[in-house]
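Inputs:
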Amino acid sequence: MVSYIIQRFVAGILTIIAASIIAFVVIQLPPGDYVTAYIANLQATGTMVSMEEAAALRIQYGLDQPVYIQYLKWVGLMLRGNFGMAMEYNRPVLEVIGDRMTLTVIVSFAAVVFIWALSLPIGIYSAVRQYSIGDYIFTFIGFIGIAVPNFMLALIIMYVSYRFFNVQSIGGLFSPDMALQPWSWAKVWDLITHLPLPAIVLGLAGMAEVVRIMRANLLDELRKPYVVTARAKGLAEHRVILKYPVRAALNPFASTIGYIFPFIVSGSIIVSLVLSLPTVGPLLFKALIAQDLFLAATILLLLAVLTVIGTFISDLILMWIDPRIRFGMEGSK
Amino acid sequence: MLAEQQPILSVRDLRTYYHQDEGIVRAVDGASFDVYAGRTLGIVGESGCGKSVTARSILRIVEQNGRIESGSIHLRRRTSSGQVDEVELTALPANSREMRSIRGGEIALIFQEPMTSFSPYHTVGNQIIEAIRLHSDLSKRAARERAIDLLRMVGIPKPERRIDEYSFQLSGGLRQRVMIAMALSSDPKILIADEPTTALDVTTQAQILELLQRLQDEKGLAIILITHDMGVIAEMADDVVVMYLGRVVERGPVDTIFHAPKHPYTQALLRSIPSILARPRTKLATISGSIPHPYNRPVGCPFHTRCSEIIRGTCDSREPQLQPVGPDHQVSCFLYHS
């Protein structure tokens, strides 16, 4: 059991290292670098930049050196808790990211809670009452949820609430007067009241998908002999279903935590722009356009770290709910 | 004691149909038999003849698309005051409190796949204790003690350790013993064993059958043994019911069935048992043809498509009825009555 955890942990660390390399290299792939983008930007406004100035900028940011040297320097910085300079803002990366990372985690967590809280009961209902009217209705809503892009959903919700309910400020994570104040309980409460909308918009597609997964898993499990055993004991039907097949269907369900998280974060970029959420999504978007090397790489790396943590948590949950993993047995079918 | 002449369970003309998009499957189509305390009733037949559905119908755990269309299942049990009380199981709602107390309480089930019959997510102890507490008001601790006693009774070594293990940590034979212990946890009067030894090797099979026989002698259990293995029937059963396509085609005491089978299907089944006395390189007799498709039942006697003694014009147009041909011996065949 301990060796399993250690194994997972080491695999997680290796994944993060690999992700940092890939993040760093991928950003360098487009032609040019931050200075090219910066010069192009200035030229568009009519300012000319000389070759000497450009070279000086490159030396300042270390862009004149080979990629692997730049990468190693960046890693060296990170080990000292410094993630480099955000070139566009001319401030340390960490300062620029600031609260945004925390808010991203909070919004994503809210979306995951929304996904789980609804997909579990709906999935169970749809499987137990397979082909009932309720099942068909949920299936229909589910397909709409998968088919409609979430930014579209965000726009529709904004339009409807503005047009028919006359709500002026929708979106954002804080009320306008709260946004710039320091953290307090009132601000936390303000955040909580603003969370449901982005959680629903971000979570709907995921929820629809997880409902399908849950339904399919449970339908499989309901046909297994141990369900007949439980029934033959004289156990009440709802206890049969909740104790045995649902428990078994949770198994693949738990492993969805790991992938739902990056799914939501990457899906949140456009939604965050539409709903003006102060998450890392829009920041990453701008950093990529400006080829702001350290900022973009740091955000990608942090997202990778969060994904690895999510996967690690879902591994731990799996181990907790499946004794076969705990006892080092592979599927005993 | 319930007198032997009074059956503890009587099934009369039971019909259980499955309603599917493609049509109706008549899984059980008029089955009648009696079960007596302290005796074993063997139900034999090929796969798909309705044996298991009969068992599930008695327990009222037929799957969602299946329904008991007609017939009756009478259970005679003794009330706490010592009187005999008769319940009609098909009249009870499948999930009613009373039916649930009978299911697992009066009538218990053990079945084929000891591997998948336990949840791999719960210890076997958890699953036995659940069954015990469902039908008694024992405390958790007392139920655990009882579970350990039950495991010891069915011959499981170190039961106080095994109780906290998971089913995948046990061997097939041990698992089936645990299954039996769980079935016996509420002191049932009737034990339905649906192919209890099919998935086990021959040695373990013999041990499990021996265990069942010992438990029957000790507790006066009525056993309904469902199998396709004539050898198991010969060893275990007192009475035999032969089923074909959801119908009982022959019924009688085990000796009569083995020594003087009347129905061509029973005769064919017995011929297809490999014999240790057979001359080498002789071909084993098989029943020609295969079971008709469930949506496409033959008109008349269900067996006429494979029968070597078919009476043209009769067997393929009219349905024979189960009628006596000797003491306690009934057969459903036009060869013996028109």
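The longest helix of chain A spans residues 100-128. Flag for discussion at group meeting.
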